[in-house]
Amino acid sequence: MVNWGLLSQLTLAISVVIQAYLLFSANSLSFPFSSLSNPQRSLQAPPTTSPYASSWGSWLHPQSTRKSYDVGVGTEGRGQGGGAIGRDWNILYHLGGNGPWVEKVDGIVEGGIGVPDGCRVEQVHMMSRHSERFPTIRPGVRMLELVKRIQDANISLKGDLEFVNRWNYFTFDPQAHFEQLTTTGPFAGTLEAFTTGVKLRT
């Protein structure tokens, strides 16, 4: 009989481990954002060494509104790192709420957020959730307990899960960091919140 609770905890723990690996090993990663050449403009991967923020002149990536026949990708506007095509896969687009925010590249709103001609901005109202943060207490404790159970089982995992054999939680004091914004890496929650405020202010 399948223990669905344990399976879901393992899935969550693995996705958090992957996120931690991405955040703290970012300098050694390459993100295959687009493997297709584009004569109009080259797409770029989410950065690995500087703060990551959305493009400001449009809702999302300005190139992603172009039709596939314009840029010659032949995938009906899909791809561009979102993993719609096999050679264009990027894990950041498949972690959902368990990974850092990255700019959407498929199925976006066209037209951008620029001020229409003849208009000017008088007020800005912003509703926003937190930036990237550590797990909340309950899931965080479950992750720690699951990793401890796996390590206490005294088994040696192999293949894709081999890293769990020597994995430690990605913060020196998990209990203190639960529910707090992350402070390091290109997706740091504190930096993202600050830069968003600066963009709105200026």
Automatic annotation (TrEMBL):
Highest taxon in the source lineage: Eukaryota
Gene3D superfamilies associated with the record: Phosphoglycerate mutase-like (3.40.50.1240)
One Pfam family it belongs to: His_Phos_2
SUPFAM superfamilies named in the record: Phosphoglycerate mutase-like
Protein name per its UniProtKB record: 3-phytase
Gene source species: Cryomyces minteri
